[in-house]
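Study this protein:
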Amino acid sequence: MEASYMQFQCLVLDFDGTFTDVEQEAAPFFGAYREQLCGELGPGADRSWDEAYARIEQAPADFGWEYDGRIVAPSQADPYIRATAIAQILLEDYGYDPAGRSDLLENLYRSNYEKSHTVFRPEARDVAEALLALETPVFVVTNSHTDAVQKKIESLAPKGLEKLTLFGNAKKYVVAEAEDRDSRFDGLPESTSVDGLSRPILLRRGRYYELLREIWTRTATSPEGMLVCGDIFELDLAMPAALGAHVHLVTRAGTPEYEVRAARNHPRGATSEDLSGLLTRLGL
């Protein structure tokens, strides 16, 4: 679906996996996360980790990143989510106190994220510079900590970096009501279904919604004037698409086929195998 950048009043991009080669960059994170969790759980946990990983690989659609007891992203979406999905299986198998699981998982993620390498997609800088050269405002909205992502973006050093606005800690995985609800959020359905996935994709992600609303308020637009680009349909794109935004999925070898179909078959959606495909879509 080729369009013109002039039809959009703002461009919103995810960061990890969208600008970066997430499999390469997250390898140190994955190993350190495993080591820390297994140290917490004690002898035999390494073997349990391998067994849980094998269960996910055998039936990836049966597992996922669980938040408040509900799956909010695919189990194999990226190494960060894969580690979380494995950890959640282990914590359940080990009978870890449910009241402390969220804090432990948050600590595991935060304490190991900065151990990741910085490995950008080869085209990342060129794409960033092309987008930042436009008059259209460009935003990055990421679950990761703002400071950590800011350092990575500064290391990429694209021309026009001062025009980029970054929102970290987006909590796209939190399915909850918006604190300041409005008619647009109230109109969101609870979930949507996609071909090839037996479970529903949950849409009412209040924290993420509030950040997107902040963006379309700043840019005097609406979801219909927004293009959102990410590498995980369920996490980055499903809710914006349901709100009326245009969406673009950047795929990689591990992207579930049902996610590719969901983005490709959406009337305002498209996919590409690299980030340069976004420029093609924008007519650049």
